[in-house]
Structure prediction request, 230 residues.
Amino acid sequence: MAGFSLPAIVVNFKCYLEATGRKALELARVCEKVSREFNVTVAVAPQFTDLKAVTKETSIPVFSQHVDPIKPGSHTGHILVEAVKEVGVVGSLINHSERRVSDEAIKAAVERLRETGLTSIVCADTPETCRRLASFNPDIIAIEPPELIGTGIPVSKAKPEVVTGAVEAVKLVNPSIPVLCGAGISVGGDVAAALKLGTKGVLLASGVVKAREPYKVLADMAKSLVGALG
Ligand code: G3P
Prediction:
């Protein structure tokens, strides 16, 4: 298990069957191959049940899709930060558009991850939300307009003002928090556009997970990321 560094392409496996169980591991291996070939950080966020296999069998950074801000003890059906740490993840997404939690829970999860030595990627739907959540001092913020998620319409091209707005909003609160963007990111050019708008990478899912040839798509993205860093 490698550490996590930016810029990065973070692939959220969501609950897609194409990235579940044995297929999660296969896709993580494709991500690992691209990461090695292009010397680019490619991280993955598989389902909880696949975290252990992916951290054990690959060397890329692995994120949990969610954690609950609970302390160890009498809780049932929750995801404990210490538990995901023990299987080797480097951090967790928090407040993904498909797994929204309250501001109070976001703040507490960021703190729990930090005290456990894990990285928090807090998702936000608008620049205004980014500004509000930046005050919790997460390690990374990901701007993802929900209306573009899963559409194949890239936020970095369709709504560049949302991405730059998020970058600016976060900078005003805490300039040391890097911003990722996601929603509809599908080809290399979308990644290059994201970097040009001031982000440190992308958070994506369907463009890679549901691609007929994930390797080709991801390799194109990695190549563009390297090119954009120029
Ligand atoms: O977490 C990534 C995500 O919500 C974007 O999804 O399918 O539009 O890349 P997608």
Observations:
- The beta strands are 8-12, 41-45, 63-64, 91-94, 119-124, 140-143, 179-182, 201-204.
- Residues 122 and 166 are 13 Å apart (CA to CA).
- The mean pLDDT is 97.
